[in-house]
Design a protein that fits this description.
Strand content: 15-25%
Strand order of the largest sheet: 10-11-6-12
CATH architecture of one domain: Roll
Number of strands: 16
CATH topology of one domain: HIV Type 1 Reverse Transcriptase, Chain A, domain 1
Oligomer: single chain
Order of helices and strands: HEEHHEEEHEEEEHHEEHEEEEHEH
């Protein structure tokens, strides 16, 4: 029992005094942020890493040759990476102090944007038994916890969500640190191997979340009060925010887009619980084509949940009877998040599910069941406002 409660209990303390590593945050002539890698030791201690990166790449190349479709997606990802200026071929002499990142891919078929993502790995040990991640500082958490953001989101009568496009890759890394982010690549196996340097913050490194979220904190120090407040509702690259006035919410949108774009951040995957909040958003920038007046029970994934803007509720999908190994991995990786979700409904156990009528679902005779947990809707004042097509712009709490 003691172990059960220790697993389910939400963390009560947060280390607000974690030392902020020096990243020399600055903005270039285009307004984009540039940072130094937050290293706790001189990278000269790393040793040699190129041979391992080459071996890993050749193994990956052989694997992709057996899967033409995956190879095509992989090559397209790398080509886009280069065409956007996020990496550049090294044609001069590589400095003696360097680090090569091995690479692999992950598949996410449910993603509406990137089905295949290339991941660059900073954790392999070099000839000196040290990795780049070993000498990186993680940095403190600069954003509010998920639970607080979701609670604030439920207070708003008019709400919207969005996601910053390729957020990590919108923050440049200083030129001298590019050589700690080298990769091996070639389009075809009959070509010579080429070396490239990654010019932006690289997802997969220990320090990656801190500099990019720190950039948002810096952006919030502006003369745009509404946008600055909305930035506090970001969880990494996802934002869920709003207000109790439709007119104010539209203004928040405009300020937020302008402020983010000034630093090269482009907000995509827009979704909202009122059509007016999407009227100025191009269809290509929306998460899905949803109308708050249609009868479809659809939703968008955000912050680990599914939000249905039409019914304006969150939905949690759980699966009974998963294979033990997969379930164990799910529990280990998602326990904290799932417990936070459950707190919103007052559910004491994270594996309880309920249907729309509030009745609990149980596994079927085969031991498998995929059900959904619907979290509470907003107050009734929003429903009235939405039914009146936004004529009642402000709701009384």
């Amino acid at each position: 029992m003691e172990r059960f409660w220790s697993i389910e209990e939400a963390p009560l303390t947060v280390n607000f005094n974690a030392e902020e590593p020096a990243i020399n945050l600055r903005r270039n002539e285009e307004g984009r942020f540039e940072v130094k890698l937050p290293l706790c030791q001189n990278p000269s201690i790393l040793g040699h890493s190129r041979d391992l990166a080459i071996r890993r790449f050749l193994a990956l190349e052989r694997k992709l040759q057996k899967q033409p479709d995956l190879k095509k997606q992989y090559a397209e990802f790398i080509r886009q990476y280069a065409s956007l200026g996020h990496m550049e071929e090294v044609k001069s002499l590589i400095p003696e102090v360097n680090f090569f990142l091995p690479q692999h891919y992950v598949l996410n078929p449910s993603s509406s944007s990137t089905k295949l993502r290339v991941v660059f790995d900073a954790s392999p040990k070099t000839s000196n038994s040290i990795s780049l991640n070993d000498i990186m500082l993680k940095g403190p958490t600069t954003q509010d916890d998920l639970f607080s953001i979701l609670l604030r989101f439920r207070k708003h009568s008019f709400a919207f969500s969005g996601n910053i496009e390729k957020m990590y890759r919108q923050v440049n890394v200083s030129t001298e640190d590019n050589y700690q982010q080298l990769i091996v690549w070639r389009d075809n196996s009959n070509e010579y191997l080429r070396y490239y340097r990654l010019k932006t913050v690289t997802y997969g490194t220990t320090a990656a979340p801190y500099p990019v979220t720190r950039c948002l904190v810096e952006l919030a120090k502006t003369s745009h009060p509404l946008a600055s407040s909305a930035i506090k509702d970001f969880y990494v690259d996802d934002v869920m925010t709003g207000s109790n006035s439709l007119k104010e919410d539209v203004k928040i949108q405009d300020e937020l887009k302008t402020l983010l774009q000034s630093a090269g951040f482009n907000l995509l995957k827009w979704c909202a619980n009122h059509e007016r909040l999407l009227s100025s958003i191009p269809s290509k920038d929306r998460e899905v084509e949803l109308s708050v007046d249609d009868s479809k029970d659809e939703g968008v994934k955000t912050l680990g949940l599914t939000w249905n803007p039409k019914l304006d509720h969150f939905r949690i999908t759980t699966v009974w009877g998963e294979p033990a190994k997969a379930l164990d991995k799910y529990v280990k990786n998602g326990r904290g998040l799932l417990t936070s979700r459950a707190q919103l409904q007052g559910v004491s156990a994270p594996n309880q599910t309920y249907n729309r009528n509030g009745k609990q679902n149980y596994p079927d005779s085969n031991g498998f069941n995929k059900k959904q947990l619907y979290l509470p809707q907003r107050n009734d004042s929003y429903s009235n406002a939405n039914n009146n097509n936004g004529n009642n712009e402000t709701s009384n709490k």
